[in-house]
Amino acid sequence: MSRIFEELDRQPTPIGEISLRRRLEPTLQVDLFEVKIGEDGLMSSLITDGEEAVSTLGLAATTNGSLDVVVGGLGLGYTAGTALKDPRVRSLRVVDALEPVIDWHRRRLVPLDPALIDDERCELVLGDFFELAAHGFDFGNGPTTFDAILLDIDHSPRHLLDSKNATFYEPAGTQRLANSITPGGVFSLWSNDEPDDAYLAVLQAAFATAEARVVTFPNPLTGSDTSSTIYIATVR
């Protein structure tokens, strides 16, 4: 029988103390994994539809054959794990700035099955996604342009985890991003806010096509729907 509550790990980071917790959700009677900074919740394993949609909708927008993919933001691994289900993916680099989060996956503390570390196509990269984007995604090996860049880090293009990320969403940063994507490739972004017309216009100026799609999915705790916005932009 599951324990009612267990703290699996707690470590200091530059943005505060991060912890991974597992608890038995009393209403649904399922194990729930949560990531917190201090007492503020960042993500949980209860509702992962938005993280998965970043991959499914993004990769569906490219007809390229063998895909080299970058995922910004590791978390519990659902965006990356969903991307690996696409048989076209030949390489996947998952970038996260927090070493403890990468360590959780290497120690198999997160519930994702199969584990990312068991897939030879997948590399977990400790680094700042936004710094890499500003300098052309040079990982030191392999390609420097990619068929898909999938991002789930900030709450939205306006609600940022770090104010320095703002330049990524501005016109110059968006154009640098588009230059890092191969012809026929795609950029996909998760947002917790409603569609932002101003940001969509920035994407449309840098990419051949850009759209904001609202995805809706059930919240098993409230019995109501939850929604996210997925931005999808393609290079011709």
Structure description:
The protein is an alpha/beta fold and 236 residues long. The protein has two domains: 5-42, no CATH class; 48-234, Vaccinia Virus protein VP39 (Rossmann fold, 3-Layer(aba) Sandwich). It is built from six helices and eleven strands. It has helices at 49-60, 78-83, 99-106, 129-134, 171-179, 197-206; strands at residues 5-11, 18-25, 30-37, 40-44, 67-72, 89-96, 122-126, 146-151, 181-191, 209-218, 225-234. The strands form two sheets. It has a seven-stranded mixed β-sheet, with helices on both faces. Strand 3 (30-37) and strand 4 (40-44) form a beta hairpin. Helix 5 (171-179) packs across helix 6 (197-206). The longest helix is centred in the N-terminal third of the chain and has 12 residues, at 49-60. The mean pLDDT is 94.
Keywords for this entry:
236 residues; alpha/beta; Rossmann fold; 2 domains; seven-stranded mixed β-sheet
Q: SSE order, as H and E?
A: EEEEHEHEHEHEHEHEE
Helix content: 10-25%
Percent of residues in β-strands: 35-45%
- Estimated structural class: alpha/beta
Rounded to an integer in angstroms, the radius of gyration calculated over CA atoms is 17 Å
Mean residue pLDDT = 94
**Number of E strands:** 11
Reported CATH architecture of the largest domain:
3-Layer(aba) Sandwich
CATH topology of the largest domain: Rossmann fold
The largest sheet is: 7 strands, mixed
